[in-house]
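Example record

Each entry pairs one chain with its bound ligand, 2-phosphoglycolic acid.
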Amino acid sequence: MQRLARDNRPLHFGTNFKMHQTPEETARFLAELAPRVDRVPDRVRLFVIPPFTSLPAAIAAREHSGLTSRVWIGAQNVHWAGEGAYTGEISVRMLTSIGVDFVLLGHAERRGHFGETDEALAKKVPAALDAGLRVLLCVGETAEEKAFGVGPETVIRQLKIALHTVGADALSRLLIGYEPVWSIGAGGTPARPEDVMETVVPLRRALGEQFGEAGGSVPILYGGSVAPENCGDFVTLEEIDGLFVGRAAWQVEGFERVLEAALAARGEASGYRD
Ligand code: PGA
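Structure tokens for the complex follow.
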């Protein structure tokens, strides 16, 4: 499986607000981000994933700030059915009809707190991709699975089930987020580069086995306690195509600090700040 040289591949960078930020706060975040985006190299693809209630405000603020071509706005979940008796759920068409272009699926908090299964993801991922949405599919092993030495096979299992019916033609809209469950949130420990490689190399191989050459083009992002101090460890790994940041990027200053540190680690800092 051939891959473009790292410097020729896009770098993806974004944040998931989780259950934080009102529509007003989200709009303010995007308005504050706008003047800083001009300094970001074109090769960097940015995304922001606010709560459902903030999506219309985020899309309006993105357009108003001239960020439409630079920042993807994502939802944190979607249902697989076109419509139906699914109280509390949101369909793909509801997202696309308001201009959402991106959806996060399989986040560890949805799997852990809300019982989201691999089988549900096997329906959600193709439903979203078929509708033209980009999908960031999260995979990751728990601390117990890592301790038992089944981290790589756990994430490969998650990947294979979620992508079971996905065809190579949809791969240009797919991104994978590798987030070890034990690394996420205030109680998490950031992964070491060797932990990431131990899992991401077999993950990449599994993409190649399923999709052939096309599997080499699917970006794999790292997430879990990413901060300015450690982001360079991840973005300099050959297999890592970006960062998926939580707490450290919920304010624009933090978002900028992590991005700036990641670009510096890649030798691309110049021009980002005055
Ligand atoms: P964190 O969140 O950076 O706050 O650990 C990461 C995530 O859940 O995606």
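The pocket of 2-phosphoglycolic acid is lined by residues 16, 179, 184-185, 188, 223-226, 244-248 (CB under 6 Å).
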